[in-house]
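_Full entry_
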Amino acid sequence: MWQSYKINESIKINEMYSFFETHYNYNYFFPGESHNFWECMYIINGNACVSGDERVYHMGTNEIIFHKPLELHKFQIDSPKGAHLLIFSFSMQGELSSFFENKVFSLNDEQLNIISLLLKFMRNNTIHDADFTDYSMYIKKFNSSSSYSQMVVTYLYQLFLSLSNNSTVSPATKTGDAKIFSDAVNYMYSNINTMSVIKDIAENCSISQTGLKRIFTKYSGISIHKYFLTMKINTAAQMLKNNISTTEISEKLGFSSQAYFSFVFKRETGFSPTEYKLKNNG
């Protein structure tokens, strides 16, 4: 009598949104953004200053960062010869998903080999130009070949599972401007039910308003007001998914009225709260 053993999937990648390899020159600046899916940036060669929510990292060759859904993130290339990157975004579920939140990993030899095999497979099965300027060159084949997409995801499973079992986590930068940025973002999270102004945040961080504005431009690419508003909208989106009413959301996030919250939410997301809830809760 044969005994069966159930296979439990600790992670599952359901959809890919982007997948590209590119080279950016020194001082290239990618402004802050957030979206409702995961994103990874792997540095094939070079250096970059990367932020994710309140954390700032000075990343180098063979490091990979995971940006969780709704995380505000940006990067700037700071190596003189530029940086060669692999960037991909995806939806991921499973009990292991939370392990990757707020982390940067320095890859070991086993993980570097997986990345190498992944890149070799994609390059050999995709027509692209030598300058890596076509951001759709890898992802566009997902719709035309199920074996191609499944092979790519299989390499990602290998990489992610390897990281969960044996990984070196790189620490966030904790000095100077990076610490002030982290303190400011954490203050905003703690006061997300208010409409805190720049003066309040600057005083809490013991810095001038001008200095605080400079640091936010450096690490987020957007103004303090826009950052705080985006933080509120992202929080509201998560609350809507949990079926919390717009009245309660507007009160908890410090909006003057439900009508004003609905107006701002639609302006920022393109959906009314009701439309967003229907879209994401089925």
Notes: The chain has a mean pLDDT of 88. The longest strand covers residues 12-24.
